[in-house]
């Protein structure tokens, strides 16, 4: 049974390229193309697609307005197609909040050398979207967004006793929302956090800024050579692997532009392996929703080095790929629903507080 895809984009050239890429996949068929959401609405009724690819910026009806209505009235897997601009990245992040499964950047038509890799990426994301759990996203109240209105979370005994501990997070498809839900519930005195989320260059900065405005902790796109501090989260930039290194008594961030690992740069395995090497039992590993297997081997190395690891469960994942692989190789100590994970991680840290590094 082929995956039925509907393409919605105001650019005739992009529609043509997407139709060619998707139509060439043996397990997919393009059931329609639409230049705007008004026509797309009729085609959805006629063709009943499995996955929609949707341009974020279009005439007649804004892509976000259309997505919001779609997720309220007929939730279905949507992959956003975005421009590599600051505005494009901000709109894309909002689309993920509204319930889009994933996004791709618009192809660079003039650069033929990367088109096969681009085609493979689109196909992978559509396959993942077809299997993903789609949930309409309820509006978040201002109190919830600020971290209020939820159950009381365990407090870490004396902030300084936990500064030696680190939280290391990896995610992919569906991860932007999962990371947001996790970080919103972190107290201002939580251990330093390093994050690799599969994202292209240009989007990670907007992602970090968005989280920084929502969370009690400070969230930044890592610039490298930063001292890892309690109450701070460092997100791998879209162009580089993020690594954890030691400098005397301190933990530091390091950026590495080496080749992709598991087809990704940044790679979760690279981050996890660096944490295994230099943090060992002081690290807490967290692997969240995402397709593929990136992070499984690195998390196993973390466990073997003494770290304590958590994996998101299948029911709460958008795509149960990376956590499933980590669980399969025996890397996870606990498997939890996303909602339960922040509280459980903090409880474990409260129970296992240790001697501080210099602060």
TrEMBL record:
BP GO terms, sorted: chemotaxis
One protein family per Pfam: Response_reg
InterPro entries linked: CheB-like, CheB_C, CheY-like_superfamily, Sig_transdc_resp-reg_Me-estase, Sig_transdc_resp-reg_receiver
In-chain residues carrying the UniProt-annotated modification 4-aspartylphosphate: 55
Top EC class of this enzyme: hydrolase
Annotated domain remarks: Contains a C-terminal catalytic domain, and an N-terminal region which modulates catalytic activity.
Subcellular location: Cytoplasm
CDD domains: CheB_Rec, REC_CheB-like
Record keywords, A-Z: Chemotaxis, Cytoplasm, Hydrolase, Phosphoprotein
Major location (coarse): cytoplasm
SUPFAM superfamilies: CheY-like, Methylesterase CheB, C-terminal domain
Entry keyword Mitochondrion: no
Protein name (database record): Protein-glutamate methylesterase/protein-glutamine glutaminase
UniProt organism field: Herbaspirillum seropedicae (strain SmR1)
Post-translational modification: Phosphorylated by CheA. Phosphorylation of the N-terminal regulatory domain activates the methylesterase activity.
Reaction catalysed by this enzyme: [protein]-L-glutamate 5-O-methyl ester + H2O = L-glutamyl-[protein] + methanol + H(+); L-glutaminyl-[protein] + H2O = L-glutamyl-[protein] + NH4(+)
Domain of life of the source: Bacteria
CC annotations in GO: cytoplasm
């Amino acid at each position: 049974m082929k995956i039925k895809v509907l393409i919605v984009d105001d650019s005739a050239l992009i529609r043509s390229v997407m139709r060619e890429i998707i139509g060439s996949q043996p397990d997919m068929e393009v059931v329609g193309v639409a230049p705007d959401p008004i026509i797309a609405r009729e085609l959805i009724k006629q063709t009943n697609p499995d996955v929609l690819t949707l341009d974020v910026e279009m005439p007649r009806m804004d892509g976000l307005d259309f997505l919001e209505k779609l997720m309220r009235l007929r939730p279905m897997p949507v992959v956003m197609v975005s421009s590599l601009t600051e505005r494009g990245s901000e709109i894309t992040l909002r689309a993920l909040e509204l319930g889009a499964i994933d996004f791709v950047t618009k192809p660079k038509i003039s650069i033929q050398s990367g088109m096969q890799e681009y085609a493979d990426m689109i196909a992978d994301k559509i396959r993942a979207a077809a299997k993903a759990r789609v949930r309409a996203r309820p509006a978040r109240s201002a109190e919830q967004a600020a971290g209020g209105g939820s159950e009381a979370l365990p407090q870490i005994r004396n902030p300084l006793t936990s500064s030696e501990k680190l939280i290391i997070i990896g995610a992919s498809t569906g991860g932007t929302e999962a990371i947001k839900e996790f970080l919103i519930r972190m107290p201002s005195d939580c251990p330093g956090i390093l994050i690799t989320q599969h994202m292209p260059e240009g989007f990670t900065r907007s992602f970090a800024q968005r989280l920084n405005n929502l969370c009690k902790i400070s969230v930044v796109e890592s610039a490298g050579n930063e001292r890892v501090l309690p109450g701070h989260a460092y997100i791998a930039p879209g162009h580089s692997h993020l690594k954890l290194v030691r400098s005397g008594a301190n933990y530091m961030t390091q950026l590495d532009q080496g080749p992709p690992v598991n087809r990704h740069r940044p790679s979760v395995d690279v981050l996890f392996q660096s944490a295994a090497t230099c943090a060992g039992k002081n690290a807490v590993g967290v692997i969240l929703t995402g397709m593929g297997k990136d992070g499984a081997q690195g998390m196993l190395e973390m466990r073997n080095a003494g770290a304590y690891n958590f994996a998101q469960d299948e029911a709460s994942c958008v795509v149960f790929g990376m956590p499933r692989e980590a669980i399969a190789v025996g890397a996870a100590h606990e498997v939890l629903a996303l909602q339960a994970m922040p509280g459980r991680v903090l409880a474990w840290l409260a129970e296992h507080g240790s001697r501080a590094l210099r602060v």
